[in-house]
């Protein structure tokens, strides 16, 4: 994979899938901005790799969305890849469901990715870049106690599919022949991202 000169943003990049992706892209030549809530954890994750920069920001905080895009552009002047990896959720039965619990999950898993994608979109159109939304197998598989989390990931996947319609008319035909941008939803399962919904972003 050739990523020389490309710029990526990865939310939830301080550990796990996010950090592994950041290191993979940096090794391939990209400059990478990883975000997360804990500055110390991010700095430790990026230590020793000059191609990885950090920004402490809550993926579910709308006020932080513009900051993420602003910082990436300030560092490198472009955005080629956005990976919405940050996720929130914990097991909870229906009887214990609360508005605060739902808002916390959807802020990170649905609202944050949508707002960040919207903010990055003009720059991704210029670079003909791509968006990867990290989902979960629970978006397709019912599991007791995880209804709120599973539903939020299903919403993320369907949101990604709807983005595929950007640049198409109501009959699904491309309105712009030079559209090359992509968005994908990936649901990790045993290390295998088995769900990929290929989608398009408009070039103009």
UniProtKB/TrEMBL annotation:
<dbReference type="InterPro" id="IPR020904">
    <property type="entry name" value="Sc_DH/Rdtase_CS"/>
</dbReference>
<feature type="compositionally biased region" description="Basic and acidic residues">
    <location>
        <begin position="191"/>
        <end position="204"/>
    </location>
</feature>
<comment type="similarity">
    <text>Belongs to the short-chain dehydrogenases/reductases (SDR) family.</text>
</comment>
<dbReference type="InterPro" id="IPR036291">
    <property type="entry name" value="NAD(P)-bd_dom_sf"/>
</dbReference>
<dbReference type="Pfam" id="PF00106">
    <property type="entry name" value="adh_short"/>
</dbReference>
<dbReference type="InterPro" id="IPR057326">
    <property type="entry name" value="KR_dom"/>
</dbReference>
<feature type="region of interest" description="Disordered">
    <location>
        <begin position="169"/>
        <end position="204"/>
    </location>
</feature>
<dbReference type="InterPro" id="IPR002347">
    <property type="entry name" value="SDR_fam"/>
</dbReference>
<protein>
    <submittedName>
        <fullName>SDR family oxidoreductase</fullName>
    </submittedName>
</protein>
<feature type="domain" description="Ketoreductase">
    <location>
        <begin position="6"/>
        <end position="182"/>
    </location>
</feature>
């Amino acid at each position: 994979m050739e990523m020389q000169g490309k710029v990526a943003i990865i939310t939830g990049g301080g550990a796990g899938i996010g950090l592994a992706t950041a290191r993979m892209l940096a090794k391939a030549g990209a400059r990478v901005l990883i975000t997360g809530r804990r500055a110390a954890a991010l700095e430790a994750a990026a230590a020793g790799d000059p191609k990885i920069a950090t920004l402490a920001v809550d993926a579910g905080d709308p006020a932080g969305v513009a900051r993420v895009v602003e910082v990436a552009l300030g560092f490198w002047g472009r955005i080629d890849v956005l990976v919405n990896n940050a996720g929130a959720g914990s097991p909870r039965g229906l009887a214990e469901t609360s508005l605060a619990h739902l808002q916390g999950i959807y802020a990170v898993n649905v609202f944050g990715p949508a707002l960040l994608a919207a903010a990055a979109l003009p720059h991704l159109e210029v670079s003909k870049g791509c968006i990867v939304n990290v989902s979960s197998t629970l978006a397709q598989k019912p599991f007791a106690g995880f209804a709120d989390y599973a539903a939020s990931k299903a919403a993320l996947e369907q949101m990604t599919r709807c983005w595929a319609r950007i640049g198409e008319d109501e009959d699904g035909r491309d309105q712009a022949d030079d559209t090359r941008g992509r968005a994908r939803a990936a649901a990790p399962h045993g290390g295998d991202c088995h769900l990929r919904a290929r989608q398009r972003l408009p070039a103009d």
